[in-house]
Amino acid sequence: MPADGVSHWVRLCELRALPAVGARGFDLRGHGVDDIFVVRRHGLLRGYRNSCPHWPGSTLPWRKHGYLDSAMQYIVCHGHGARFTLDAGRCVRGPCVGQTLEAIPLRIEEDEYLCALLADDLPNEGAD
Question: Fewer CB under 10 Å: which end of the chain, C or N?
């Protein structure tokens, strides 16, 4: 997120709506393409902008919520074959090795709701 931009906390969903291991995308603008996605693997919970650093603006999944490889070990850019770590979004294989996905800060409210800190270039409406 731009350091000089205005940000807003936005409620994305109830925690129970996330898989214990997997990913979920959020189409905050209602344009049929996810703006951000959240990865969950047991205790790990990370949010990222849905854009490959190899080709900014290109989306990652091959289908809705299809962000991870079959072993649920890496985030995959299905357009370029790049693989990113779940915890840091760092590319470890593909055309953008060493680059990272843009992280989206997350927090849990009321022990029930997942919220994301979104820059002013993303909508400030909830995803539910």
Answer: C
For the chain, the distance separating the N- and C-terminal CA atoms, rounded to the nearest angstrom, is 23
Tell me the three state secondary structure of residue 80.
coil
Distance between CA 23 and CA 86 in Å, rounded? 10
pLDDT in tens, 12-50: 999 999 999 999 999 998 989 999 999 999 889 999 999
Cα 23 from Cα 122, distance rounded (Å): 20
Token readout for 106 is: 């997350």
Q: What is the pLDDT of residues 94-111, one digit of tens each?
A: 999 999 999 999 999 999
Contact status, residue 98 vs residue 73, Cβ threshold 8 Å: no
* Phi, psi for 33 (deg, rounded to 5): -135, 135
Q: Using one digit for the tens of pLDDT, what is the confidence trace for 115-127?
A: 999 987 665 454 5
What domains appear along the chain, each with residue ranges and CATH number?
7-118 (2.102.10.10)
Alpha-carbon radius of gyration of the chain: 14
